[in-house]
Amino acid sequence: MESGKSDNLFAMQSGMGGSTTRLKGLARNLRRLAAPTLLTLAIALPADAATLYRYINDKGYQEIGYSVPTHLVPNGYDVIDESGRLVRRVAAQLSEEEYALKLERERKLEACEKAVARVHRRYESLQDIDNAEVQFEAQLEESLQNAQANLEYNQTELKKLQDMAAAFEREGRIIRESHLNNMDQVRTTIDNLNAQIEKGERSKGTKAAEFDEERRVFQLPGCDEEQLARASW
Predict the structure, then answer these.
(1) How far is CA 60 from CA 28, 72, 75, in A?
(2) How far apart are CA 39 and CA 110, in angstroms?
(3) pLDDT digits 0-9 by tens, 190-205
(4) Positive or negative CA dihedral for 44, 50, 53, 57?
(5) Is 156 helix (H, G, I), strand (E, B) or coil?
(6) Cβ-based neighbour number of residue 142 at 10 Å
(7) How many degrees, rounded to 5, is the angle at CA 85 between CA 84 and CA 91?
(8) Where are the domains positioned within the chain?
(9) Alpha-carbon distance 10 to 189, whole Å?
């Protein structure tokens, strides 16, 4: 019995010894596999890249450093990484005159773009502009003729009222207030009609110039620097 137990115990110990050997071998293999993996992670996670600045120095040459001299900051500079890749560009500061010119250019550009959009919404061709001008001239002429006819009618009415007032004075009669009010109203109407006719006559030349401008804008290839310089937007 004792001999059998010893044999079984030896077998168990031998089996456990084999298992221990296999576990140790597995551990060594895992360490060998883990080593390159940790190395890969170390390579993939570099230290934070330093911030560099690229600018033009006092001699007019490009320079790269960890800061920009204070007196050169208004000239603008580039923020780059260690590989030279552009991260951010800081534009040069403008003088008051340069800033005013920039604002004026932006204003002209906006006015030009709005004008082009408006004209193309209103007309589909140059012929449409020509037709619109002819129609405007016809309507204006009709309006002026009506105003002139009304003017002549009111001038005649005023003459009648004035003659009546003169007759009342010759006869020594008092001119009624309603009669004087009527004359004032007719005078006001005559003044308004004269102003309307004068405005209509002025609009002939003004409107003709506007139609010419719309033709020019309609044919613009775009709001480039040349167009902004030539036109008074």
Answers:
(1) 62, 11, 11
(2) 58
(3) 999 999 999 999 999 9
(4) negative
(5) helix
(6) 10
(7) 100
(8) 1-45, 52-93, 99-230
(9) 136
Across residues 139-148, what is the average pLDDT? 97
Which one has a higher pLDDT value, 42 or 63?
Answer: 63
* Average pLDDT, integer, range 73-84: 92
Closest CA to 175 of 188, 162, 159, 192: 162
CB 151 within 8 A of CB 193: yes
CA distances from 52 to 77, 87, 146, 161 (A): 10, 10, 78, 92
Phi, psi of 185 (to 5 degrees): -65, -40
Neighbour count for residue 60 (Cβ, 10 Å): 6
Residue type, position 88, single letter = R
User: What is the average pLDDT across 207-230?
Assistant: 88
The amino acid at 7: D
Residue 18 corresponds to which amino acid? G
pLDDT digits (tens, 9 = 90+) for 17-29: 444 445 455 445 5
What are the E-state strand segments in 67-213?
77-80, 86-90
What is the model's pLDDT at position 44?
36
Range in 45-49, 186-190, 216-220 with the lowest mean pLDDT: 45-49
* Helices H / strands E in the chain, number of each: 5, 4
Count of residues in the chain:
233
Strand partners, 62: 56
Higher pLDDT, 33 or 105: 105
- CA dihedral for 39, 44, 50, 56, sign (positive or negative): positive
Comparing C-alpha atoms, which of 226, 223, 225, 230 is closest to residue 111?
A: 223
Count of beta carbons in the 10 Å neighbourhood of residue 214: 20
